[in-house]
């Protein structure tokens, strides 16, 4: 078994080095040029889009807002990758891995923008009056390749609600055990079983409540837990301010192989930074567009910008805090079994902060687990019009929440890397193929803004655009608004 695992790890490293990394770099550079640096020049619009009113459904309830869709995708983004993922990246790749995480986030934000814009363009209406969509839908309607959407959906199910959720569950259990150990309580297999049962019960209570319960839960939980974590991280950075210059120097020098940590070569540094960066912010993987498509916005570009901001929020804010907690508190390199973030918090602030960190990590992983489930539900709905399969998926996710809590996840982490890479490959091919659509839709948005209008998109906005399932002019004023934009 160990030999098989090692062989799989070797193949996986080659797959990422010569396949996925070049593909995501190519896609990101294409969109950087095509959109004229949309992730930089429309930064202000990213914040404005979060406040947009989503309107109401036919039953009088509010539709999914841009902020709620952002919260759902952030629930999957903000979690293990921000703490355990950063810890693993630095432990194995050294401080230089942080540099490549930063660079990746800045460049691939354009790809995140493109995939969520496309998800909005090709979304479908639900019977309740809301929306659904994602990469599978733009593969079907935009490319005319429904089979490609099925392949993507199958890979997504293996990646998110299965392997990623087992990782999240295991991390949740580890956080609770760390908290109990800090209080002097002896832990073991028995406590892990109890924790797993509690986690499975909590997961069932949320996911059997449906999408709106998920949206409302994450809308409340994500900002709170992120704020508390940022406050703790900021406090540690202030306490260890004298160590920041040295940490920055280590990040830069080891990023290019000038200085090595734990024997990590420059190839390992780049690989760990990019791989764990993608695990953390998910840009290019095709996961966030499933949530982004549910938002009720007046123009696809608005949600594309919101999701691009999510990449910044995840990597440049949350992951950076984690990195500075680690690098300013004398980390031990080379051992990926140690959570360097929680060790740094304990060293800087003491046992009480370790308890708070355990709570934050529990919230991070739980919301990630919920967000991961939603992506699986979206994929099931794409492939089958059979409601009972949703309940099967929910039962499987609840069961895996327990299994992941008590399992050894060395193999699962590796399996997750494989499926994550396959998922990104299929999605990036589609995003590249539809670059012309993204360009035309963004041009329409820019032209309306230059005309002094709040951009509104309909099926007539971009001549010749086919395969649209939504975006019919619901009101005459919508059509008039677009017409005035082009007249000016």
How would you describe this structure to a colleague?
The structure is a single chain. The protein has about 500 residues and is mainly alpha-helical. The protein has helices spanning about 1-35, 40, 45-50, 65-75, 80-95, 95-120, 135-140, 145-180, 190-205, 210-240, 245-255, 265-280, 290, 300-325, 340-350, 350-385, 385-405, 410-435, 435-450, 475-485, and strands at about 125, 130. The longest helix is centred in the middle third of the chain and has 37 residues, at about 145-180. It is globular, with a radius of gyration of 22 Å. The termini are far apart. The model is unreliable at about 475-488 (pLDDT under 50).
Assigned CATH architecture: Up-down Bundle
Helix and strand pattern: HHHHHHEEHHHHHHHHHHHHHH
Tally of DSSP β-strands: 2
Strand proportion: under 5%
Fraction of residues in helix: over 70%
Secondary-structure-derived class: mainly alpha
CATH class: Mainly Alpha
> Can you tell me the number of structural domains?
1
Flag low-confidence runs: 475-488
What is the average per-residue confidence, as pLDDT, rounded to a whole number? 81
CATH topology: Amino acid/polyamine transporter I
Main sheet record: 2 strands, antiparallel
Shape: globular
Strand order of the largest sheet: 1-2
Alpha carbon gyration radius: 22 Å
Cα separation of the termini: 67 Å
Treating each run of at least 4 consecutive H or I residues as one helix, how many helices? 20
